[in-house]
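User: Here's a chain of 120 residues. Predict its fold as tokens.
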Amino acid sequence: MAVADHRVISSRFPYLPLSFTVRDRTLEVEALLATGFDGDLVVSPDLVLNGRPADGYFTLVLADGREVEAAVYLGTVTIGGFSPIEAGITVLGDEPIVGLGIASRCLITLDHGQRLIVEL
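Assistant: Prediction complete.
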């Protein structure tokens, strides 16, 4: 990841490096950009669960049509040196996924399948 001229450039296409904070814990991940996901951020349970109850639950419809209930924690997502974005951090699966809830707040350029460029 490079940060230059108010941009974040990821050469690991189509992954976006970011950090997220839930309560008092901040972690860095590379999240797959998924424009078919309306939510903010999905991470694996081992990154968030710490014995504290979730802030809420909601039902997700997966790509195969199955519905699953997932825990959601209120937190923030930070991309590069930009200001944190309030977000719902969903706990599910084993790969971090960033959705339209975050992506729609940024200008994202998919540069010929080689780089992902984010501007806020």
